[in-house]
Amino acid sequence: MKIDEMIKQERKDPEFNKFYEAEGEKLATAVALYHAREEAGMTQSELAERAQTTQATIAKIERGDNVSFDKLQDIAHAMGKKLQVTFS
């Protein structure tokens, strides 16, 4: 069985599907931050310094760990950006 088929089968379980979707949303946030930071030409350390946080915090967010909206807003502003949240 291919992984895509296995995931499709597992997603029929409501509990698994809820977890799967939540992790996908965290990953999307992590990828968005990574791309924004790269586009700004900053290292994790440079961004952390500007956002008055630690490099470890930036790394954790880019791994998909939970973070507050306040922290994301600080990070966005440190890159000269505005934090926007959309629901789709």
TrEMBL record:
Gene Ontology molecular-function annotations: DNA binding
InterPro entries on file: Cro/C1-type_HTH, Lambda_DNA-bd_dom_sf
Q: Which SUPFAM superfamilies match?
A: lambda repressor-like DNA-binding domains (SSF47413)
UniProt signal peptide: none
User: Where do the TM regions start and end?
Assistant: none
Q: Which domain of life is it from?
A: Bacteria
Q: Name all HTH cro/C1-type domain ranges.
A: 33-87
Protein name listed in UniProt: HTH cro/C1-type domain-containing protein
Species the sequence originates in: Secundilactobacillus malefermentans
